[in-house]
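Reply to dn_fold:

You asked what the input looked like. This is it:
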Amino acid sequence: MKWLKNLYVGEKIRQDRAAVIRLIEHPEWKNRFAFCCLISPAPQEGENLEILPLFMLCQKHFNVQDRVVLGIAAGMEEAVNLLLTMTQDCLDAGGGVRVKEYFLSLPEDAYADRGEVVS
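and this is what came back:
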């Protein structure tokens, strides 16, 4: 799993950010933060970003290793607000509305493993 170093984090979860990031890799603890959502590029062609409730990571068909995490939020409403912020940042940077392509085209050093994001 790759993490955006300048991770978008919702206000309600900002103080628990490090705990949520650590728990994402421990399926047995995910129910403590089941209300949390991840924002990630959608794996489907032609799709932009997707909001994933944390409990979805526990499903067998879900491949966590191939995920890129751009943001975390406390619930769907906050995740939608983060998506709006991310879209505006993309527009401001000249990326248009191709939000997924904008974030995936960032240089490799814009991403980190979990440890660098938590610290």
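The radius of gyration is 13 Å.
Hope that clears it up.
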